[in-house]
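Notes from the 1:1 (GR / supervisor)

We went over the backlog. Supervisor wanted to see one worked example end to end before approving the batch request, so GR pasted a single chain during the call. The sequence is below; no edits were made to it. Supervisor asked that the structure be written out right there so they could see what the output format looks like.
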Amino acid sequence: TTLPVALAGVAQLLVAAAIALHEADAVMLSFGIAGAVVTGARLFELRAYRAAPGRLGTEAWERLYAIGGLVFAALVGLTVGRAFLESDLRCQTLATALLYTYAGGIIARVSVRPWIATASLLIASLPFLAVLVFRWDWLHLSLLAVTLTALIGAADTIASVSAAIVRNLTARQGLATLA
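Structure output shown during the call:
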């Protein structure tokens, strides 16, 4: 459905706009606007796919989906990373909430395409992880450790969900040939 894409776009825009207004940060505002534009393009792409799935081959639709998803992941990562350059802990809390909810959505909705899910999580997380390393205090390093632990768990979940889907499809195909 288009709802998860729309909700992720709204969440990223809200976090970026809130921090931009609080910190008078034009760069953060540009991340929010770019996220809204990318979300709009992704929603248009999903609508086009539903209207005429045969217009392009499966690989072409997957590439388009991946490109939009990975660009959006980069904008989430930039938003979160920049928020941790700010000293206000409320900005950091908003950014952490954005990253973790985004990751949960990716795991739940995109694990069917494990390469897209894994790449999205890494792209969204790397700016955040880099800033945490450079903050170099106990609490930020603890958050780094928790996030790395969550990413390892996410990778395992993505692999498990993907394998279960492949097993299910293989079993269905086998049953269909028996019918």
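Supervisor's comment: Residues 121 and 151 are 8 Å apart (CA to CA).
Batch request approved.
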